[in-house]
Amino acid sequence: MHRFLFVFFLITIAFIFSNKKVVVTKLEGLNYIVLKFYDEKISLLNQIKQRHTDQANTIKIFQENDYKYEKNLISYASLESKYNNIKAFVNTDKPDTNNIKIAKVLSLKNLYKYSRYWLSYEKDDDSIDGLITNNFAAGIVKYQDGRPLALLNHDEKANYGVFVGPNKALGITQGMGYNDNIVVKFIPVWSKINIGDEVITNGLDDIFFEGLKVGVVTKILDNNINHLEVEVKTYAPTLVQKYYYVY
Fold it and tell me: How far is residue 134 from each of residues 30, 80, 212, 230, measured CA to CA in Å?
């Protein structure tokens, strides 16, 4: 009886160990499948992450290239504008005189005064110079606050001597301020002036040389009984140019 129980015990132990081995083997197989599944998923996620990173880097590169391209466009537009200004100036006929300088407009002197501009050129005395564009009288240049200041024709203080009409009646220009035209004052009362007469510089004040065109008479005014006054439409553009000649 005892022998039978002992044998039964041994058989039971052997069966348990045998099944455990099978279970362990099956569990190991299951673990391998699970681990392989998760490895594949992790690998896929890493690939997606890497792809996303690559796309983000590509987008960043494209954005940087866009910024560089936009910056280059702005630089190109600026250079093109400067080139066009210089081209227009160079293609202008230079006045027939050797005493000429080139001046670049820097800025407005006053935001509310569109007839006065600071210039960039060497001037170290208080003489008054003539401002020229397109072979037309455009105004004068004064030395103010240690800098050259341009006063365009329509400025009320842009005064210089002129001849009016074929008989060369003497007069002095003055800008109207509120108008693009100018007035020529102090013309002798005996002078014969007609609408359409041409006005040129007389050179007597040494601001301009004689014969530079100013404009044409558009109206004869009766503002003064002691001398004649006429309104003149100027040839020079009223809008400021980027460059001028200075005499």
Answer: 95, 21, 10, 24
Residue pLDDT tens, the chain, 247 long: 555 555 455 555 555 545 555 444 554 555 556 556 656 666 766 777 677 676 767 777 766 666 566 556 655 665 666 667 666 665 555 555 567 888 999 999 888 788 999 999 887 788 999 999 988 999 999 999 889 999 999 999 999 999 999 999 999 999 987 678 999 999 999 999 999 999 999 999 999 989 999 999 999 998 878 899 999 999 998 889 999 999 8
d(C-alpha 134, C-alpha 114), whole Å: 20
CB count within 10 Å of CB 182 equals 29
d(CA 105, CA 116): 10
CB atoms inside a 10 Å sphere around CB 198: 16
CA–CA dist 178, 113 (Å, integer)? 10
For residues 135 and 208, membership in a common domain is answered with yes
Are 177 and 228 members of one domain?
Answer: yes
- Residue 222: inside a domain, yes or no? yes
Both tokens of 203, joined, read: 């050179």
- The domain that holds 152 is classified in CATH as 2.40.10.350
Alpha helices in the chain (DSSP H): 2-90
What is the chain's Cα-based Rg?
46
In a domain, 96, yes or no: no
First to last CA, the chain: 142
Among 206, 159, 212, 167, which Cα is nearest to 186's?
159
